[in-house]
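Support reply, case 0932

Customer input (verbatim):
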Amino acid sequence: QNRCMLLLYFSFVTIIFIGEIALAIAVYYNKDGVTDSIKGQFKDCMGKYTNQTEEICRDTIDSLQSVLKCCGIDKPTDWKNYTMETPPSSCCIDGKNCTFTDNCFKDGC
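Our regenerated output:
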């Protein structure tokens, strides 16, 4: 019985490993499409950032910008397209107040 279960476990792990490799190869060859899809979803969340019912978008963007030390899609001024007078605090180097030119991460995500 133990040998059978061990063989079954090994088979499942092998199948999962092969699947991960296949997925990595597929993403590598379709990286432009994946990048465009992520940017599109990021833009969508930027549009919902100030909506009080869309906390998941706000939390996701804040986490990404804080961890990656970036702001907006291409640059901090991307936030101007979404009627924001200043970038979110997650764009700020000190995590507090900043403007589009001062104390703000310069690179886009």
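We compared this against your earlier run and they match. Two observations from our side: The helical segments are 2-29, 31-47, 55-68. The longest helix spans residues 2-29. Please reopen the case if you see a mismatch on your end.
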